[in-house]
Amino acid sequence: MSRASIGLSPELSHYLLSVSPPEHPVLTGLREVTDELDERNMQIGPEQGHFMAFLLQALGARKVLEVGTFTGYSALAMALALGAEGRVTCCDVNEKWTAIAREHWTKAGVESRIDLRLGPALGTLDQLLDEGAEFDFAFIDADKQNYLKYYERCLRLVRPGGVIAADNTLWSGKVADQREVDEDTIAIRHFNTTVAADNRVVVSVTPIGDGLTLLLVQ
Ligand SMILES: C[S@@+](CC[C@H](N)C(=O)[O-])C[C@H]1O[C@@H](n2cnc3c(N)ncnc32)[C@H](O)[C@@H]1O
């Protein structure tokens, strides 16, 4: 996993960012703080942040669900794009990483737009279903072996015409290498073939970041 989009040379990645909208300074600061962590590559890259912000604006989204928040970069990029009326519900299990997230959400003045729910995401999604919650957009970016379970719940939580986006679906290219047989790679391959054949959604697999699969809910 890396934060630059898969297959882009460092030069082209640099050029892409030079012709993209400027990154919010708190997002830049959050990337720098996350760089100090061994798990830094779990964070989405800036071009993916721009792309998801663009998608939310194109959809006219107000309510967003995130499964896997880490230090809060994707949640912050989305909260900034949604504007003052928007709400992001975030699911994560890790208190240390989400403390960094909260600090930066506050710094950017969007903490009131974000509802962080700490605990295993399957339980949180079931709770949201019980609450009758509805979302315009869901971003799945947590443990890979639960992707299909998150997807099934998101299909019930996202309104028709809304979008589910699943991250890391090209998995650094490992999905295309049959010698790779670890459990995460197998889970992502299974996710990819399952959603490709699912007529409840319109699917587009995009090579942004580490592969971002977009699923338009019918
Ligand atoms: C790839 S990171 C998310 C990156 C984040 N979207 C960003 O752009 O910075 C995956 C996150 O999923 C969380 N996670 C893993 N298993 C989980 C579970 N069962 N329930 C909720 N969160 C989980 C991890 O704690 C980690 O923070």
Tag the structure with descriptive keywords.
single chain, 218 residues, alpha/beta, seven-stranded mixed β-sheet, binds S-adenosylmethionine
Low-confidence stretches: none
Computed over alpha carbons, the radius of gyration is 16 Å
Biggest sheet architecture = 7 strands, mixed
Mean pLDDT: 97
Query: What is the chain-wise order of helices and strands?
Result: HHHEHEHEHEHEHEE
What small-molecule ligands were found? Answer: S-adenosylmethionine
Helix/strand-derived category reads alpha/beta
Shape: globular
Strand order of the largest sheet: 3-2-1-4-5-7-6
| Approximate strand percentage | 15-25%
Helix content: 40-55%
Separate helix tally: 8
Distance between the termini: 31 Å
Structural write-up:
The chain has 218 residues and is α/β, with parallel strands linked by helices. The protein has helices at 10-18, 25-34, 46-59, 73-82, 95-107, 121-131, 147-157, 183-196, and strands spanning 63-67, 87-92, 114-118, 135-140, 158-167, 201-206, 212-217. The chain is built from 8 helices and 7 strands; from the N terminus they run H-H-H-E-H-E-H-E-H-E-H-E-H-E-E. A 7-stranded mixed beta sheet has the order 3-2-1-4-5-7-6, sandwiched between helices. Strand 4, helix 7 (147-157) and strand 5 form a beta-alpha-beta unit. The chain is globular and about 40 Å long. The two termini are 31 Å apart. The protein binds S-adenosylmethionine (SAM). Residues 42-44, 68-71, 73-74, 91-94, 97, 120-121, 141-143 line the site of S-adenosylmethionine (SAM). S-adenosylmethionine (SAM) binds next to helix 4 and strand 2.
